[in-house]
User: Which sequence fits this backbone?
C-alpha cells in the first residue's frame, strides 16, 4: 500500500511539472493536438499508479517526452502559420448575415440541431439574430450579434494567412489586400492582424522583439 | 521562448538517460550471466562445493543488482530471476547435473528476457 501512495505522490508531482512546462496554453480551450497530449499524459500517468509491477520510469519518461514534444510542437505552430493551419484547422463561417451556410455545415458534419443548440447556449434563438457565426478550430461557436450597432469586422489576414472565405463575403480579392496594405506602407508579412468590415479596417503590425506592436484603425475612402 | 530550451534540455536528458540505462542493463545482465556460467563450469569440472558457493554468490549479487534494476524493469521479471537463482545452488550435486543444466539454461533465458524488456525495440 505504501508503494501505491509513494508512486501516486511522485506521479502527481511529475504531471504537475509536465503541465507547468507546457504552460497556460494547455489549460485553456484545447486544440486537437493539445487534447491528444492531455489524454495521453493522463493515461500514461495512471498506468504506473494502477500497476505497481511496472517501474516508475515507465510513466515518468513518457510524460516528460510528451510534454517536451508538445512544447516544441506549439513553438513550431507559433513560427509557422501554415503548420498551425495543418494541425488545428481554420475557423469556418456557418452563419453570415442571418443566413446559415449549409455547405459549411455539411463539410463540418454539424447538424442544424447542433447549430441551434450552440446558438441557444449563446442566448440566441434564431440565426437571424446573428450577423456572423464561426465554428472555431476547437469546436466552439463564436458569434457576432446582428443587434449590435457596429457591423462586425471580419479577419482578412492573420499572421500571413489569408481568409479567402471572408474575402469572398466582402467581394474582395487577395490582390486588393496586398494593394490596401501597400497603400499603408506595409507588406503582408509585416501584418499580424488585418480586420475589415467593408468600411473600416483594423491593422495590427507585427512587433519586433524589442518594440511593442502598433495598431491603427482606418476608414476606407 | 525559455520553455523551448527547457523542452530541448529535457529531451536531451531523456536521450542520454536512455542510453546510459541501456548500457547499465546490458552490463548488469552480462555480469549475471557470467556469474551463473562460472558456477556451472565448476559443476562441470565436478567441483560441486565451489559450484554451490558460486551459485549462492551469484544469487546474492543478483538480488543486489535487481534492487537497482527495479526502477527500470518490470518487477515480476526480476522476481522470477531471483526465485530461479535462489534454487540453483541446491541442484549443484553429482546426481543432479542434468537438472542443473536445465535450471541454468532457464535462468539464462530469464536474464535474456529481463534484458530485452528494456533494451529490445517494439
Assistant:
Amino acid at each position: 500500500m505504501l508503494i501505491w501512495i509513494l508512486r501516486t505522490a511522485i506521479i502527481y508531482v511529475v504531471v504537475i511539472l509536465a503541465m507547468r512546462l507546457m504552460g497556460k496554453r494547455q489549460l485553456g480551450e484545447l486544440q486537437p493536438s493539445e487534447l491528444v497530449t492531455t489524454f495521453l499524459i493522463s493515461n500514461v500517468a495512471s498506468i504506473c499508479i494502477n500497476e505497481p509491477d511496472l517501474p516508475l520510469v515507465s510513466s515518468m519518461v513518457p510524460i516528460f517526452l510528451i510534454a517536451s514534444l508538445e512544447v516544441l510542437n506549439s513553438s513550431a505552430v507559433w513560427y509557422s502559420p501554415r503548420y498551425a493551419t495543418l494541425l488545428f484547422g481554420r475557423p469556418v463561417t456557418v452563419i453570415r448575415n442571418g443566413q446559415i451556410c449549409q455547405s459549411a455545415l455539411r463539410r463540418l458534419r454539424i447538424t442544424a440541431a447542433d447549430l441551434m443548440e450552440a446558438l441557444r447556449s449563446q442566448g440566441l434563438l434564431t440565426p437571424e439574430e446573428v450577423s456572423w457565426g464561426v465554428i472555431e478550430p476547437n469546436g466552439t461557436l463564436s458569434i457576432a450579434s446582428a443587434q449590435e450597432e457596429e457591423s462586425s469586422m471580419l479577419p482578412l489576414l492573420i499572421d500571413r494567412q489569408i481568409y479567402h472565405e471572408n474575402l469572398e463575403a466582402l467581394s474582395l480579392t487577395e490582390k486588393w489586400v496586398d494593394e490596401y496594405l501597400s497603400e499603408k506602407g506595409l507588406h503582408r508579412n509585416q501584418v499580424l492582424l488585418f480586420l475589415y468590415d467593408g468600411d473600416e479596417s483594423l491593422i495590427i503590425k507585427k512587433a519586433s522583439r524589442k518594440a511593442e506592436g502598433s495598431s491603427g484603425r482606418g476608414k476606407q475612402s | 521562448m525559455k520553455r523551448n530550451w527547457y523542452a530541448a534540455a529535457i529531451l536531451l536528458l531523456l536521450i542520454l538517460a536512455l542510453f546510459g540505462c541501456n548500457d547499465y542493463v546490458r552490463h548488469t545482465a552480462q555480469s549475471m550471466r557470467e556469474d551463473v556460467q562460472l558456477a556451472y563450469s565448476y559443476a562441470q569440472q565436478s567441483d560441486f562445493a565451489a559450484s554451490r558457493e558460486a551459485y549462492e554468490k551469484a544469487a546474492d549479487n543478483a538480488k543486489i543488482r535487481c534492487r537497482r534494476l527495479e526502477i527500470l524493469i518490470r518487477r515480476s521479471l526480476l522476481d522470477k530471476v531471483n526465485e530461479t537463482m535462489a534454487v540453483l545452488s541446491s541442484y549443484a550435486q553429482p546426481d543432479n547435473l542434468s537438472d542443473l543444466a536445465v535450471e541454468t539454461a532457464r535462468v539464462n533465458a530469464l536474464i535474456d528476457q529481463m534484458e530485452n524488456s528494456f533494451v529490445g525495440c517494439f
